[in-house]
Specification:
12 helices; binds 3-methyl-2-oxobutanoic acid; 296 residues; alpha/beta
Length: 296
C-alpha cells in the first residue's frame, strides 16, 4: 500500500502506529522500502551522521536535495519527507515557500518538515497554500541548540508544557498534517497526541505518540559514542561492519582474498600467445640496448 498524507491520517484515526526512520542514501532506502517502513525523513541530522559536523546548523538546501533525490530513487510506497535546514525558512515566508518548492521539485520529496511552533506558523500556512504538505517539529528542535544551550528534554515545567501544547495546536491550525515531538516527557506527548487530530511522531517522546522516528545509524548502533536515553539498538551493525573491514584488511594483506572463485578466467591458448609476444618484445629491447652500447 502506498503511504500518503491520507493513509497516514487514517492510521491515526484507526489507532495504528506509524513507523518512520531517517535515511540518506539509495541502498538503505531500498532496504527500508522492502521492510515496509511507512515514512522516511531526509533529516538535517545528515549533517552529523553523513557529513561529520558537530550539529545540524551548517546543512544546506542543496545537501538535503542531494540525499533526498538519491533516497527517492529507492522508494515506491514509502512516504518521503525532506527537512528544511537552518535558515532556509526562518528568514522569510518567501524563502520558506521557495526552498520547500526546491525540496519537492529537485529532491522529489512528498512533504517538508520544519522546526518551531507558533513562531513559524506563517511559513507553514504559506507552504501549505502552495499544496506542499508540512510536518512540524516541536520540543527539542536541534536547529535552536545555541538558544537552548544544549540537547535537553523540553516541556518539564508547567509553563513550558503549556507552551508545547499551544505550539502543537498552533501548527495543526496552520495546516501541518503531522508533527514531530522530540525529547518530550511521555505523559505530555500522550496528552498532545490526544488533543491533536493530526498524527504525532515521537523521538524520545514515549509510546503514546501516533508513530515513532529514529535516526537509522542510532538504531543500528553504528556510532561508538553517545547513546541518547530514548535510542534502542535493534542491531549491532557498527561492530559487524568493523569486523568485516578488519577481515578484508587481513585477507588483502595475506593474499587470501581474492581467491580463485573471485577471479575471471582466460584460456591457456590466449595466455601462451600473449606470453610469447612479451618474450619477443623483451628480446628486441635487449638487442636494441646491446647495439646502443656498442655504438657509444
Ligand atoms: O534531522 C532529523 O533527523 C530529525 C529527526 C531526529 C526527527 O529531525
Amino acid at each position: 500500500m502506498k503511504n500518503t498524507v491520507t493513509t497516514l491520517q487514517k492510521m491515526k484515526n484507526e489507532g495504528k502506529k506509524i513507523s518512520m526512520l531517517t535515511c540518506y542514501d539509495y541502498t538503505t532506502a531500498c532496504l527500508m522500502e522492502e521492510a515496509g517502513i511507512n515514512g522516511i525523513l531526509i533529516g538535517d541530522s545528515l549533517g552529523m551522521t553523513m557529513m561529520g559536523y558537530d550539529d545540524t546548523l551548517p546543512v544546506t538546501v542543496d545537501d538535503i536535495i542531494h540525499h533526498c533525490a538519491s533516497v527517492s530513487r529507492g522508494l515506491k510506497d514509502t512516504f518521503l519527507v525532506a527537512d528544511m535546514p537552518f535558515m532556509s525558512y526562518q528568514t522569510s515566508v518567501y524563502d520558506a515557500v521557495k526552498n520547500a518548492g526546491r525540496l519537492i521539485k529537485e529532491g522529489h520529496a512528498q512533504a517538508v518538515k520544519l522546526e518551531g511552533g507558533a513562531s513559524v506558523c506563517k511559513q507553514i500556512e504559506a507552504i501549505v497554500k502552495s499544496d506542499i504538505p508540512v510536518v512540524a517539529h516541536i520540543g527539542l528542535t536541534p536547529q535552536s541548540i545555541n538558544a537552548f544551550g544544549g540537547f535537553k528534554v523540553q516541556g518539564k515545567n508547567i509553563d513550558r508544557a503549556k507552551q508545547l501544547l499551544e505550539d502543537a495546536k498552533a501548527v495543526e491550525k496552520a495546516g501541518a498534517f503531522m508533527v514531530t515531538l522530540e525529547c518530550v516527557p511521555a505523559k505530555l506527548a500522550t496528552l498532545i497526541s490526544e488533543e491533536l487530530t493530526i498524527p504525532t511522531i515521537g523521538i524520545g517522546a514515549g509510546n503514546g505518540c501516533d508513530g515513532q522516528i529514529l535516526v537509522y545509524q542510532d538504531m543500528l548502533n553504528m556510532f561508538s559514542g553517545l547513546k541518547p536515553k530514548f535510542v534502542k539498538h535493534f542491531a549491532n551493525i557498527g561492530e559487524e561492519m568493523k569486523s568485516a573491514f578488519k577481515a578484508y584488511d587481513e585477507e588483502v594483506k595475506s593474499t587470501a582474498y581474492p581467491a580463485e572463485e573471485h577471479c575471471f578466467k582466460i584460456s591457456d591458448e590466449v595466455m601462451e600467445a600473449l606470453e610469447e609476444e612479451c618474450k619477443e618484445e623483451h628480446a628486441k629491447e635487449v638487442e636494441f640496448e646491446v647495439n646502443r652500447a656498442e655504438r657509444v
